[in-house]
Each structure stands twice: as C-alpha cells, then as structure tokens.
Amino acid sequence: RIDDLTYSYHNNEVSNRLRKVEDISGTEGFVNGANTTTEYQYDVNGNMTSDANKGITGITYNHLNLPTSITIGGGNISYIYDATGVKLKKTVSTGKVTEYAGNYIYEKNQLQFFSHAEGYVTPSGSGGYDYVYQYKDHLGNVRLSYMDADNNGSVTTDDIVEESNYYPFGLQHKGYNNVVNGTEHNWDYQGKENQKELGLNWHDFGARNYDAALGRWMNPDPLADLRYELTPYNYVQNSPMFKIDPDGLTDYTLNKKTGEVTQVGETNDEPDRILKTYTRKSKRGEVKYKKNGEAKVAIGGIEKGILKDGQNFKTDDNVIETGGEGQATVEGVKSFTLQLSEYVGKEIKGFSYSSDGASGEVTDMVLGKYLKNDRTTSYGSVTELNKKYGANFSFNNVIQQFHTHPDGKLGATQSAPGQSQDVTGLQRDKPLISNATFIILYRINSQKKPAEYDYTHEYRK
Q1: How far apart are CA 212 and CA 89, in angstroms?
Q2: Cβ atoms of residues 188 and 172 within 8 Å
Q3: In the prediction, which pLDDT does 278 show?
Q4: pLDDT at 268
Q5: Per mean pLDDT, which range of 16-25, 116-125, 241-250 is the poorest?
Q6: 174 φψ region: left (φ > 0), alpha (ψ -120 to 50), beta (else)
C-alpha cells in the first residue's frame, strides 16, 4: 500500500477545512513531514495559507484567490497573472523562470515546447523541432509520450519519451514511471501542469490548485454555491475513475426553467460549451457525465464573446458585439442562435446592426428573449440597441432581421407565402427597418452550419 491517511478537520471535526493528516504506511506518496496539532491554515476566503507537511509557511493570494507568492522550504515561488487570472509567469527562487504565452512555454526566454492536438512540439536543439505524440486514457491523463525519432514511420521502445501510470486521485505509480528519452514533461494528470518546484507538487488547473497526494483542492470551488451539499474542497465528487474537473473549456450551464446561464469552467481561449444538467430536484443544476467521465454537452463550439455568467436568454434581450478583437463573428452568433433554438425547442428572433451604417459591417447583434415564443412564433425588438446607442441609434442601420426554424422546415414561407406568418411579419416590420433583409435560419440534414433562406423578396409595398 502506498498511503494510509487519517484526516482531521478544524472546528472539532465539523469544518470542511483540513487541519491535520497522518500517514502510517511509509514515505511514498503523501510525505508526512510534520506532527503538530494544526498542520494546515486558511485565510478568511478559505484558501490554504500553510502546509506544515510540505514546509509551506506562507501563501499570498490575489483578488481571484490565485496564489501570487508561496514560501516553501526556505525558498519562494511567485506568479504573475493577467486580469482574468490566466497565468503569465512563474519565478522560483532557484533561478528558474517560466513564462506562459498561451500554448507556448518558455524558460529563461527559450522556447521549451508548444502544444498541438495530439501532444506537443519541442525544439530539437539543432534548429528544427521534434513532434511528440501522447496517448491519453478516458479521463485525459497522459499515459504515454512517443515520437518517431528516425522518421521511418514506425515507433519502437526507443522512441518512447515518457510513460505515466496513476492512482485514481493522480499520484504516479513508482518503479516504472521513469523518463526514457528526453526531458520530463510535467503536463501529465488531466493534462495539467504538475508544479514540482521546491517539492510543491501541485497540479495547476487554472482556477485553483490540486494536491494529488491528498485528493483535495487547496482552494474552495469558486462555484461552490451551486453544489452546497458538497465540500468545496472535494475533487470530482470523490469519483476520479469516472469524472474530470470541468475545465479546459469555458463551460456553462443553462437552466431551461429560468433561462439563466451560469459559468462552471475556467476562462480560457478555447470555444465555449453549454453542458447538460439534471432537472430533478435532488440533483438540479448538477452537470451530467458520460460513463467515461466526460461532461455531456448540450451546445458546443460556441465562439467567445457570446456567453457570460449570469445572462438570461429567456427573459432578456441580449446584445452581442461582433467583429472586433475578442468578439464573436456574425456566423458564430447565428450558429449559436440556431443551436439554442433547437435546444429549448422555440423560435428565436434577432437583428444585425451596423453602428456606422455606411460600411454595412455588423457591429452588434441582438437576440430577443424567448419567454413567450413557441416552435413557430418568435418575438424581438431593437430596444436594447436603442438604449446602447441613444441619440446615435438609427433604424436605417438595422441591416438584417433573422429568426430560427428549429424544426428545420421552411413551410409556408417557401411554399405558400401568402399564408405564412413570417411574410405577414415582413409586411409589418419592413417599413420600420427599410434597409434590412429578412432571413430564416434552419438546419439541412444535420449540417453543422445553419442554412439561410432570404424571403425579403416577398415584401409588397
């Protein structure tokens, strides 16, 4: 056996904050470096500030509850983040400096590697690059790293760079987890960086840090109020064989009953997703998982700039800025609108707007609330655009009105326009937004990209 741990907690064992851990099995795995009454301390936000077993005597946090300085074993590790909490730089008192530029990792201004879809690329040392490929298990844990060093199209044991095998909560097996060739790559369990400097051994999951030796987070869950029945320090509800921590993508949930959007994953540069959740009272709001541990996705591939924590598509009109840096594209907004419409089973109406009018470039799109909509009827207005631009707003700058057909059918709008309520709406709305085209968004044969049907020609003055 590797560990036989006994956990004690603050406040006479009724707190969820760890106070002391004892191990009677030996020195592998968890290192029992202290034997005092209180071995773990926390700040008022619930962040761990000291760990006597690791020799951590102080941790300073920023306003996002991310560590900015860790004093450990007489040394120090400091961090710099951007305004959203993305780690930019790590400096260790030994002189090691790591800089993070998205997927590009540097040490002392020298590129160490950058990631690709199947592994990572590292400088060869001779002016070129080596492509390392990774085999991952069903939870995304890196199990084997290999490369075709001689470019002969065949991989042998000589091409194995690194092998990793894990206990359920993330500790590596001992005795055969040695680097075979090259440099050890510390992005391993769940594909997260294992920070081994000064004996820290924390996995950085972005929003908080995880100790695989304890199977616990060092910081409370930022979204703990969504799962009040669980300790905010638990790792994947103590089911590491079947579940993963829902990050790596910026994940959201959508409460179908209330329409509220809630962020449940860390912010990053990957496309956003809306995850499926339970609706029954006992588990309402909890994310659904597949048997392989992956979260079930309701809507995927959502461009940045569309979703935000706390917004509501059911009860509110939502203005989405488009075309600028960090903003969604027009196509991305339309794709999301149709996916949302199909998910909730209702039509959704929207408008495209050009703030300067002359260029015709879409700067804003507004999605109307679907509270009173059904599968064949939708409502929406440009009121929120009027509020945003005030005296500068012009109906002439509305360049398109669109709505969805979640059933994928054009119906009477195409076959019998005189009987179509879409065309009736066109006759009513076109005089007010005279420069606008009128579009139906629908899906053809499960194609990913929405089809568009322009029925502006049905307008009769």
Answers
A1: 23
A2: yes
A3: 85
A4: 61
A5: 241-250
A6: beta
CB contact at 8 A, 202 and 263? no
d(CA 350, CA 341): 12
What is residue 265's DSSP assignment?
A: S
- Helices (H) and strands (E) counted in the chain, each on its own, are 4, 29
The string of pLDDT tens digits covering residues 218-259 is 998 876 765 566 788 988 878 888 777 655 346 889 988 899
Which residue has 């509501």 as its token pair? 312
Q: Are the C-beta atoms of 363 and 354 separated by less than 8 Å?
A: yes
How many whole angstroms separate alpha carbon 229 and alpha carbon 286? 11
Which residues neighbour 39 within 8 Å (Cβ) at sequence distance 6 or greater? 19, 20, 21, 51, 52, 53
Phi, psi of 172 (to 5 degrees): -85, 145
- pLDDT by residue (tens digit) across 70-104? 999 999 999 999 987 889 999 999 999 999 998 89
Give the distance, in angstroms, between the CA of residue 279 and the centroid of all CA atoms in the same chain: 22
Q: Is pLDDT larger for residue 341 or for residue 268?
A: 341
Angle at 228 between CA 226 and CA 229, to 5 degrees: 125
Residue 202's DSSP bridge partners are: 195
215 with 169: CB under 8 angstroms? Answer: yes
CA gap 276, 260 in Å, rounded: 13
3-state SS record for 27-57: CCCCCCCCCCCCCEEECCCCCEEEECCCCEE
Over the range 353-380, which residues count as b (16 or more CB within 10 Å of their CB) and which as e? bbbeeeeeebbbbbbbbbeebeeeebbb
The residue among 344, 365, 343 whose CA lies nearest residue 354 is 365
Asked if residues 247 and 264 have their Cβ atoms less than 8 Å apart, the reply is no
Q: CB count, 10 Å around CB of 457?
A: 10
Which ranges of 309-348 does DSSP label H, i.e. alpha helix?
A: 330-344
User: 76 vs 50, 59, 262, 440, CA distance in Å?
Assistant: 13, 10, 36, 59
The Cβ-side half-sphere exposure at 374, using a 13 Å CA radius, reads 2
Q: What is the mean pLDDT of residues 18-45?
A: 91
- What the block records as the tokens of 25 is 């099995």
160 by Cβ neighbours in 10 Å (0-12 / 13-18 / 19+) ranks as middle
Structure tokens at 393: 């707003």
Q: Pick left, alpha or beta for residue 95 (phi over 0 → left; psi -120 to 50 → alpha; otherwise beta).
A: left
